[in-house]
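Task card 7
Instruction: Convert sequence to structure tokens.
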Amino acid sequence: MPAAPLLALSLLSAAALANALQVSQNLAAGSSVTVEGNPVTMVNRYPTANAAGIEQAIRADATAFITSGAYTWTAAGAAATCLVTYNAPAVLGNAPTITGPVTAALCP
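Output:
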């Protein structure tokens, strides 16, 4: 399977793990959690969409994926359509949205 679809699944798993840690520890919805020794910032019970949040939770290989603004990863050397985007939930009770890749066949 190409790297980008696997990354999307990994993002989903990392977000679910951080959510479970926060809920099981009875922390407030915006309280940070620790994943494998790394602090992960949270919003509405899920990792924030930035380097201090989801990037800390997933720990993607920086040589394999390039991150940018709205928390999008593009496989290094891949077509522009080979990307995965993570968006933290805007309100408590919603899950994050993870989209992509647009064209998985073009992903390495």
